[in-house]
Design goal:
Rossmann fold, four-stranded parallel beta sheet, four-stranded antiparallel beta sheet, 14 strands, globular
Amino acid sequence: MQLKLTNTLSNKLDFFTPINNKNIKLYVCGPTVYDKPHIGNARSLVIYDVLYRILRELYGDNSVTFVRNITDIDDKIIQRAEELGILIKELTTEVIKNFHEDAEYLNCLLPTHEPKATETLDVMIEIIQKLINNGHAYTSNGHVYYNIESFPDYGKFSGKETDSLIQGSRIEIDNNKKHPADFVLWKPSQDKDLGVSYDSPWGLGRPGWHIECSAMSYKFLGTDFDIHGGGADLMFPHHTNEIAQSCCAFPGSKFANFWVHNGFLTVRGEKMSKSLGNFITIYDMRQKKVKGEIIRLLLLNSHYRSPMDYNEKALYDATETMNYFYRTLENFDLINFEQIKFENLPQDFIHSLCDDLNIHRAISIMFSLAKEINKSSNAESVTKAKILVSCGRVLGFFMENTGSWFHMDETDLEIENMIKERNMAKSVKNWEEADRIRNLLTAKGIMLEDNPYGQTIWRRVPSNL
């Protein structure tokens, strides 16, 4: 079955035809490592992990090259390190460590390559020099700028007119530029750069944001590759500028044949913001002992191109669904289940994934299969359980056995028992006792949430929150 993807480049649903079906090339914009990844970053992380898994199923494990970069040179990084009073390297090392822990928590596969910007400076300098030589870039007062007027198709990708490109973008406006929307490829070092200074033909400095991805994709995938992924917020200016500089540095290159963009994420209907108190990191979820597969399900259970809202009901629903799946499989040893080949899985499941990554529909098919298992005889249920587990593992689920999924340590059992006592007190309207138990749990760092469904959800609150 052939994969179809919504291609931002053509603005329609296209059949995916690889350049070389023995080496599918996928590039995804990774984190800028200035702070712990948030729940919006997690959505992008799991979506492209599923795309990677599907490509491996369709073309073979060893036939897909997946590159996800790490931006460890950026204005935000310098600003954050300055606020904390630490060196850039200290900050980026810690944030990269957190990112890797988050990716593992969410059951994401390792990419084939994970280059850092600091490791690809020679390629950036090479591309910048090509752009200067080709008449698409110019030097000005220690800076190197890309000349947007040298590329007639500039802005076509994002559907923006040249004169309207400045508003809402991460570009610097100064008198050194020929056009206000020209973007920086190389900038001179400043005193506050905290040790981020590199030698180049244009003096000591550091690269601009956009050139980093062009260099890292070129180094590992060449001038042309199959799919470029990232958040919808990156279409302009980042992806627009990637296309311009890569196509002009390598005449005849199309850069990426497919562009895939995932939708925005809000929290309780609002844009995530620290000032609103709704800024949720993946680290927060780990500290609260929310299982990674639950967050993964929550983030995948709406179409990747659509906006999605993170809220308590969505978390509750994802928790209940994953618990239902694991209860359905409680009598089976999942660890010893051999995964059924992708082509032997239910055709409607495969079709859903190949139909523009309709993961929500694929999960609904899994839910229907779980219902059938619960109604089946023993012989039938074993076969169907193997199919359910294999479907789930294609999506990155069922990495635990049911025993570990439902296991609670002594501390957790104590908390559960206190919650039961509180609920009993509430049932007889002993509000004083119910409040006393809540206060005891709060003192232990346990927050209770009484949801509309008559259940009490508890979570640990990190001491630094």
